[in-house]
Design a protein that fits this description.
Layout (H helix, E strand, L loop, with lengths): L5 E4 L1 E4 L6 H4 L19 H4 L22 E4 L11 H9 L3 E4 L4 H9 L3 E4 L2 H12 L6 E4 L4 E2 L3 E2 L4 H9 L3 H7 L1 H14 L7
Parallel strand pairs: 2-3, 3-4, 4-5
Antiparallel strand pairs: 1-6, 6-7, 7-8
Length: about 200
C-alpha cells in the first residue's frame, strides 16, 4: 500500500457525529463494484439528492473542498458494521487522513491496513481544527506522521506498530514478511537444536 509520511492537503470539515459505515458506503455497493471505483459512491446518501444531482450542502461538493485528502470528523466516526469497504471507499475518494475525537474500533484498525491515517485528538482540539478548515481563508493542513503533528503544533499519539505500517507502506502481512530473515535464522537454529521435529 502507499506510504504515508507527510501530507499537505485541503482539510474538509465534516463534524457530524455517529457516522456509521453504512453512511460511508451503502451495503449494496459492497459487492460488484471495483475497489478503485468505490469513491464514486462514498457518502452517496448525503452527497447526492434523490434525483441524482449533487447535494450542494455536502462538503465534498463545495468547490473549495473538492479533492480534499483530510477530513476533520465528529465523534464515533466509522461505527456500525465491520465492512472494510468503507475504508476502501474513502481511499478511492482520495482521503488519506481522518481526524476525530473517536472512531469505531474495527474501522480504526482497517484504516491502518489500507494506508489511511486516523488521528484521535480531544474533542475541543478537533473542533478548533474544524473551525480552521471552515474559515474563508483556510490554508491546507500539514500532517507529519514521523513527527506526529498536525500543522506543526498539534501533537497526536499513535501506536509504534501502526506508525511503522504507514511510514513503510506495509500491512500486517508485509510487516511479518519483513521479519523473514529473523524467522529463517530462528528456524535454522531450532533445526540444529531439535532436528527430530523437522521432517527430512
Amino acid at each position: 500500500m502507499d506510504k504515508f509520511q507527510t501530507l499537505t492537503a485541503v482539510a474538509a470539515p465534516f463534524p457530524q457525529n455517529n457516522v456509521d459505515t453504512d453512511l460511508i458506503i451503502r451495503i449494496e455497493r459492497c459487492t460488484g463494484t471495483p475497489k478503485e471505483e468505490l469513491g464514486r459512491y462514498a457518502f452517496e446518501m448525503v452527497r447526492f439528492l434523490p434525483g441524482g444531482a449533487e447535494n450542494p450542502e455536502f462538503v465534498f461538493n463545495q468547490p473549495r473542498y473538492r479533492g480534499a485528502q483530510i477530513m476533520v470528523c465528529g465523534e464515533f466516526f466509522g461505527t456500525g458494521s465491520s465492512r472494510e469497504v468503507a475504508v476502501w471507499a474513502l481511499a478511492s475518494l482520495g482521503v488519506r487522513c481522518l481526524i476525530a475525537p473517536s472512531f469505531g474500533q474495527i474501522f480504526f484498525g482497517n484504516c491502518f491496513q489500507n494506508g489511511l491515517l486516523p488521528i484521535i485528538l480531544p474533542a475541543v482540539t478537533v473542533a478548533a481544527l474544524a473551525k480552521q478548515a471552515a474559515a474563508p481563508d483556510a490554508k491546507p493542513f500539514t500532517v507529519d506522521l514521523a513527527q506526529q503533528t498536525v500543522n506543526g503544533s498539534v501533537r497526536f499519539d499513535i501506536a509504534p506498530r501502526n506508525k511503522k505500517m504507514l511510514l513503510e507502506g506495509l500491512d500486517e502481512i508485509g510487516l511479518t514478511l519483513a521479519l523473514e530473515p529473523k524467522i529463517a535464522a530462528f528456524q535454522a537454529a531450532d533445526r540444529r537444536r531439535r532436528p527430530w521435529i523437522y521432517p527430512t
